[in-house]
Amino acid sequence: MKRAVIFDLDGVLVHTDKIHYAVWVELTEKLGIPFSPQVMDRVRGMSRMDSLEVVLSAGDRTWTQAEKESLAKEKNRAYVARAGKMTSADVEEDVWRTLDALRARGVLLAVGSSSKNAPLILERTGLGEKLDALADGNMIQRAKPDPEVFLRAAGLLGVAPGEAYVVEDAEAGIRAALDGGFTPVAFGGSAAASPLAAHRIDRLSQLTALF
Ligand code: G6P
Ligand code: MG
Q1: What's the confidence (pLDDT) of residue 42?
Q2: Average pLDDT of 24-50?
Q3: Taking burial as the number of CB atoms within 10 A of a residue's CB, which of 74, 75, 76, 110 is the most buried?
Q4: pTM of the prediction?
Q5: CB 137, CB 31: distance < 8 Å
């Protein structure tokens, strides 16, 4: 019996994946490195540094650790400058309706995100008030496709992995969910084509039919 849903944040509850994308485009244009929606799909769900490694690997030079750290900082500054301006109006009506409908059914709700900016986004949009728990990039050693962040979220909710759905737009997140013993639900992004997903939805509100 399922009694919880753990949502990925970027690209699932909010369109911050589009902000990540725009910032990667700016950075790679400046560095003269090719970037594309396909590269974006590969880095969905990965940590900031892991994503940077993948993005830089499309170029033809190597970077020192200090240079990489400085690029990661620059990317994050640009991201926060935009994402920090989000409000509740940046969350789709279907998302609010879904969270309220699930809560009304007694379903426990959490976010499991690789992002260190998850607390900022939840605070700016007001989404945090609808959640019972948050596990994010500040609390884990290993980002997706490792299941650590989802296991942490389940622990905070007090549920076993088998009692929770994980909703993801990232292939890495679907794999993490499966490896952790959760039931993965694909919602757009690179997850939509994943053969590992147990369910596929194209509107978040379709989740309510699973309870
Ligand atoms: C999310 C996004 C990734 C991003 C990662 C780190 O999972 O899908 O594209 O790289 O978080 O986010 P951060 O806000 O910590 O840089
Ligand atoms: Mg995502």
Answers
A1: 93
A2: 96
A3: 110
A4: 0.96
A5: no
Q: Which residues surround ligand 2, an ion (CB under 5 A)?
A: 8, 10-11, 169-170
The predicted model gives 103-113 an average pLDDT of: 98
Q: Which residue among 16, 21, 47 is best mutated to probe the pocket of ligand 1, counting the most ligand atoms within 8 A of its Cβ?
A: 47
- Pair 164, 191: CB distance under 8 Å: no
Range list for CATH 3.40.50.1000 in the chain: 4-15+88-210
Q: Is 183 in the pocket of ligand 1 (CB under 6 A)?
A: no
Which are the catalytic amino acids? 8, 10
pLDDT tens per residue, range 62-104: 999 999 999 999 999 999 999 999 999 999 999 999 999 999 9
* Superfamily of 4-15+88-210 according to CATH: HAD superfamily/HAD-like (3.40.50.1000)
Question: For residue 111, which of 168, 159, 162, 161 has the smallest C-alpha distance?
Answer: 168
Quote the pLDDT of residue 78. Answer: 98
**What would be the CATH architecture of the domain defined by 17-83?**
Orthogonal Bundle (1.10)
Q: Which residue spans of the chain are classified as CATH 1.10.150.240?
A: 17-83
